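Minutes, project huddle
Topic: does the predicted pose make sense with zinc ion bound?
PN asked that the exact inputs be recorded in the minutes so nobody has to dig through chat later. Recorded below.
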Amino acid sequence: MAGSEATCDFCGYKAPSERALQEHVAKVHAGRPFPPKCEVCGEVFESPADLKAHHEGVHRAGRS
Ligand SMILES: [Zn+2]
Ligand SMILES: [Zn+2]
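Predicted holo structure (tokens), as shared on screen:
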């Protein structure tokens, strides 16, 4: 990821921000099984390994 711009892994759509990309994915690509999506923050990853690393780095021990 470079700067604040974010690209949709599904269709290549360029969003002005990560948040805008998440909203785009939720609206346009809702319910798609792939690529893996973080259930906590909604971020989408290219592989399950990336999602796992994201969880360990961002949401580690975040279970309440
Ligand atoms: Zn898209
Ligand atoms: Zn997350």
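Observations noted during the meeting:
- The chain has a mean pLDDT of 80.
- The longest helix spans residues 18-28.
No decisions taken; revisit at the next huddle.
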